[in-house]
Design goal:
Strand order of the largest sheet: 1-2-3
Number of strands: 3
Largest sheet: 3 strands, mixed
Structural class: alpha+beta
Mean pLDDT: 84
Number of helices: 2
Helix content: 25-40%
Number of domains: 1
């Protein structure tokens, strides 16, 4: 997960939500509630362990993938509420939708 900041003060900061590897805190020092931070960690952990994109980018159970996508959408909405209008939160995880086209990384 990351943020993109633009130097133009008339534009909003953008936070792009996507899963990633590594043990670090997903949003670093971004001011969000502990409960939302825990949900983000759990969401990312599911991506790392259930989808396990190192082996193959395909959910072993499509319903688990659908729930993961739905949770990601909920996280986007809740992040938007907690961060307020000065930040625009967008999703970057749709590529992992079990009902979508498989991602092509070449």
């Amino acid at each position: 997960m990351g943020t993109s900041k633009d130097g133009d003060k008339d534009r909003q900061n953008v936070l792009l939500l996507w899963p990633e590897w590594g043990p670090r805190d997903l949003l670093g020092s971004t001011p969000i509630s502990d409960s939302l931070r825990l949900r983000l960690r759990n969401w990312n952990h599911t991506w790392q362990t259930v989808l396990d994109p190192v082996k193959e980018i395909r959910w072993p159970d499509a319903e688990v993938g659908r729930r993961w996508i739905a949770e990601g959408e909920s996280l986007v909405r809740e992040l938007q509420v907690e961060l307020g209008p000065q930040v625009r939160v967008v999703e970057g995880f749709r590529v992992y939708d079990p009902d979508g086209e498989p991602p092509r990384w070449s």
